[in-house]
Request: fold
Amino acid sequence: MSETAELNVGGKTYTLPVIEGTEQERAIDISKLRAESGHVTLDDGYGNTGSCKSNITFIDGEKGILRYRGYSIEELAVRSTFVEVAHLLIWGELPTSAELQRFSNMLTENSMIHEDMKFHFEGFPRRAHPMAILSSMINATSCFYPELLDSNYDTDSLARQAANLLSQVRTIAAFAYRKSRGLPIIYPKLEYKYTANFLHMMFSHPYRDFPLDPEAVRALDLIFLLHADHEQNCSTATVRMVASSKANLFASAAAGVCALWGPLHGGANQAVLEMLEAIHREGDDGSRFIAAAKDKNSGKKLMGFGHRVYKHYDPRAKIIKQACDEVLARLNKSDPLLDIAKKLEEAAMKEDYFVERNLYPNVDFYSGIIMRALGIPVEMFTVIFAIGRMPGWIANFKEVAEDAKGRIYRPRQIYTGKTLRSYVPIKERGQAGS
Ligand code: CMC
Reply:
């Protein structure tokens, strides 16, 4: 007999089904609770709430495990590429060579944005944050390709939309960067692969191609791959939320970019670099910053530390930390911020505050050091995260769009405001606040 849970409330007992995932994680299914008992559950920040069933990504935060479609992140990081992983996430399987060729060709064919979209970049002020440009332009994409907005989502139309979005996000990102620097736009080259093309569009001169270092291309490809999906984080849950209303893929992904931007989420990579720079500038050995991060009244946190799900070292951070040393050595570069970051980690790991709360470095703690070594400016760090996360967002969008029985996402609340009162005409409201 399948397991059940019992809930005793208001003198009545309700029997709730317990469901189990393929990795034996268990959940109490409360989907009929309100109808049967009149109660909802309250879970601030959704820390205990499974919002969906998904077969894309598995995380065991206690053990530090991350798998895409069953493949460990450690193995993919060493043996795969971003485009291959994008195929895996979106279509469920690693591609055969013919499938990879077809997928790559579709990305190449879609790499150019609609020529009229170029004029939109001119409307943004020079100092506009590239994340604002990215979300606006992704949303705007749907205006330029109305033929892509087929809401039937058969495999072919989804493949076209996915290729368009995945390919154009990097073109839009590079154009946003060039715009912020007042530089002329560089078009993608048909002969370059995904990540090389992005670096080309970022750094080439109109009359002289940027010399592409294979080490740099591989390092950025690894960063994209490590960010490609992370189950129901804030931005992916946002994408699913928007998708559940049957909004299109571009609108859903643009919302994901907005959710990612915040410093508690993807924006942490920019915040980490700014923190390390400040520590360096102020000649702090890290101890002053750690003391401030422990003090709840300081308003400071150790950026790049802590995670809602990982109560162990983030496996992505482990890979990136090791890659930092290797990439800097191969590119023949050194960075004082890497030493500061390592010392900061060492010092934090000796503090009861961080140990007791299981606060370890997350993916954002070391990724900025690699991006800096590649010449990527700090305001583009979260954009790089967004490009990397696109396959995960598309895969999650697809899961929602293909779920024929799927309902619109619509959480409940516990209202804590005023109870019913009568309207007071303005002349009787007194002078307060005038
Ligand atoms: N520095 C100092 N204290 C921290 C930190 C930190 N980075 N992170 C958590 N804490 C404290 C927190 O104040 C709380 O203390 P107490 O129990 O005394 O109230 C305790 O640790 C538990 O934290 P929490 O607030 O329950 O954690 P959360 O799950 O709500 O938030 C987090 C997770 C990632 C938003 C948070 O750890 C944080 O703000 N970290 C810094 C920002 C950051 O690096 N974000 C990137 C996350 S990884 C990339 C991604 O996927 O977004």
Notes: The beta strands are 4-9, 12-20, 26-28, 57-60, 65-68, 71-72. The mean pLDDT is 94. The pocket of carboxymethyl coenzyme *A is lined by residues 45, 230, 233, 264-266, 268, 293, 301-308, 357, 359, 362-364 (CB under 6 Å).
